[in-house]
Amino acid sequence: MSQPKTNRFFIALAFAYLLASLCTTYFMMGFAQSYQQHKTSYTETLNFQERLLNAREWMFASEWEPKKAQAAATFKEAQADFLRAQRWAYLGAALAVIFIILVVVFFQRHPLFYQKLSFTFIVIALGCLGTGIFAPMLEIEAFSQDLTIPLKTHVNLGITKVKVDLSKTFDGRMYFYYQNKSIVELIKLLFQKKSFLVGGAILGFSVLIPLFKLLFSVLLLSSGWVRHTTWVQQLVSGIGKWSMADVFVAAIFLAYLSFQHMNAGIDTESNLLWGAYFFLAYCVFSISSTYFISQAIKKELF
């Protein structure tokens, strides 16, 4: 196969992957947003203001039954949306693996094999980055399970005192806090709360530095002038060392929120969602692309 035909075939293959990846991301994001809405509605139904401050539920046990049924139905819908989003995420991962296999099979004997493989990893990294910053990254919830409010007193009847127990147990979960955020939403929240240092760090490490790295990586592979510029190669290599910094910053923020809402008698759960895994995948593919770019420059593009 001639060089122009080979290039056109690779471009068509990359375009087909991008189109399929966009479709899987679109459906995954739709179900992820639906999960976010249903999970938020579920926690609002079981919010402490709706239960603890509801006088009717204090007086009548039957008041809880309609809420319990509504919450169970909403939670079931949320779980179904979670599984659907997870399936589309798995399909997106499978497409990336298939793309890499096809490139290796068709181009392993090509004189510019490492260049093609580098572009492959860059394209996949770009797709993972876009999904990683816009898909929900983490959810944090603070709740009490079967909360009991002790209300015991004595009533003086003149000749004797009678113990009166008005304690109330709220069956099931009672939510005090719930958040489900993507990296973009997390950055907005931090800036709204005037946490400019942490927000700026996540913005830089999550969005700006990854985009600059991918841009310069493409320039290294496609431009001879850029390739022979030493500082550009050093810049791409240096940026690669910071690729995992955002995961570290996000982990600190996750731990901060978890401990912030941890009080006596309150359970706190923190769960990583699709955005965190896609951003981690971006880091892996980005770091791997740096190796293949160096091999392409040494062996093919000298």
TrEMBL record:
Q: Where are the transmembrane segments?
A: 9-29, 88-107, 119-138, 196-221, 242-259, 271-293
- Keyword terms of this UniProt record: Membrane, Transmembrane, Transmembrane helix
What is the top-level taxon of the source organism?
Bacteria
What Pfam families does the record point to?
A: PqiA (PF04403)
Q: Where are the coiled-coil regions?
A: none
| Record-linked InterPro entries | PqiA-like
Q: What is this protein called?
A: Membrane protein, putative
